[in-house]
Amino acid sequence: MKAGIDLISFYTTKYYLDLKTLAEARGVDADKFHIGLGQHRMSVPPPDEDIVTMGASAALPLMERIDPESVELVLFATESGVDQSKAAGLFVHELLQLPSRCRVLEVKEACYSGTAALRFAASEMERRPGRNALVICSDVARYDLGSPGEPTQGCGAVAMVVNSTPRILELEDACGLHAEDVMDFWRPNYRDEALVDGKYSAKVYLTTVARTWEHYAEESGRSLADFSRICYHLPFTNMARKAQVQLCRSAGANARDYGNAMIDESLGYNSQTGNCYTASLYEGFACMLDTAEEDLSESRIGFFSYGSGCMGEFFSGIVKPGYRQHLLTDRHAALFSDRTELSYQSYEDIFNLKVPADGWDYVFAEYRTGPFRFGGVSGHKRIYEKMG
Ligand code: HMG
Predict the structure, then answer these.
(1) 3-state DSSP call for residue 93?
(2) What DSSP string runs through 244-291?
(3) Which residue among 32, 148, 273, 322 is buried most deeply as judged by most CB within 10 Å?
(4) Considering 40, 49, 72, 111, which one is annotated as catalytic?
């Protein structure tokens, strides 16, 4: 395929809860979260941040590096949508002052939809040389307080510019697909928190690794030896370790030869943010590019994308020579070093704050945010503001 990821940017909120604090509050051994799940902190969105502000904040530095007038497609992937009808991308379109000659829509299938958006954007841009697509994956992962899913909560967004002359990753055509109607994780329209059959969801995730690899291997004729690194959807980082063992088994490869070295560099950011649903896979990819000491130019990266419900895809791409000059590594490092730790009580207070649904006017208190904030609601309309 003559298209792929030209630029990639990650954003998360300025507040986090240390999982030691959560472990104390829940009377659980902190090692269960640190060692058992591989998680250390979870990003928490203050009341004036949501998928729109996070998505726009991830995209802003990219718009400073391309001509925003060249953006003719905005695909916003999320499973924590803020409106049943209007695409969240339209709020971002306004915040970023993108051209009106642009196609904007929202894409949904749990955590998988970011991948659908990326591949649709790449197919579209392949025949539109000189034009750009903006793909945004943005989510807030929420489970009930005190539930097993709680320590895997998190939030964050990834924005990617996609075009026919990518500077970071050229996508390859072969892909392995698996779709199946299962109830492993879902969120009915009347709930803010997801429902999940946790152990079953992990089992279906692993079966989907096997099914998608079988299809990909058939399509491409490749083996694990053809890959330099693998990035996985990261609900928590230890899921990737289990997935890598499964992949080795499915590919008939020895887990000692193709083990953690293929995945370790992709896990650091997620262990500090928690699950970012649609953004998690690409957060992992950005982390790997930012932190790998080895120059990954010309190497093949495998991607496993999973969305509960369920939809999975295994696909691949080749890293472009010179990609390092186009990374936002320093910006990402600054995000992580400039966060405020929450006490348990502040976390619970923020968790319990809901957007009022009565149609009256509300102005939200200012918390620490990025370049955009969700300022309030008026007549059931969300109001977004650019800071500074
Ligand atoms: P749990 O059942 O409370 O935890 O929640 P557990 O008892 O299975 O323990 C977790 C691990 O910690 C185990 O390791 C324990 O042995 C270990 P494992 O057997 O898995 O290797 N452990 C300890 N280790 C060291 N010291 C200790 C200790 N105690 C225990 N003291 C569960 C785990 C994943 C079920 C829960 O967090 C959950 O429900 N999470 C949400 C669902 C989820 O993340 N599913 C993953 C696959 S589905 C997916 O990825 C899609 C998703 O992103 C959504 C979408 O697509 O839309 C979720």
Answers:
(1) helix
(2) HHHHHHHHT--TTTSSGGGTGGGSHHHHHH---GGGHHHHHHHHHHHH
(3) 273
(4) 111
Q: Are 245 and 304 within 8 A, CB to CB?
A: no
Q: Write the residue with the smallest CA distance to atom 19 of ligand 1.
A: 36
Handedness of CA 334, 155, 56, 112 (dihedral sign): positive
Q: Per residue in 85-125, pLDDT tens?
A: 999 999 999 999 999 999 999 999 999 999 999 999 999 99
- Least Cα distance to 114 among 58, 143, 157 occurs for 157
Q: Is the dihedral of CA 320, 170, 131, 116 positive or negative?
A: negative
Ligand 1 atom with the shortest distance to the CA of 185: 54
Q: In the annotation, is 332 catalytic? A: no
Helix (H, G, I), strand (E, B) or coil at 294: coil
- pLDDT band per the 50, 70, 90 thresholds, residue 128: very high
Q: Can you name the residues that pair with 305 across neighbouring β-strands?
A: 313
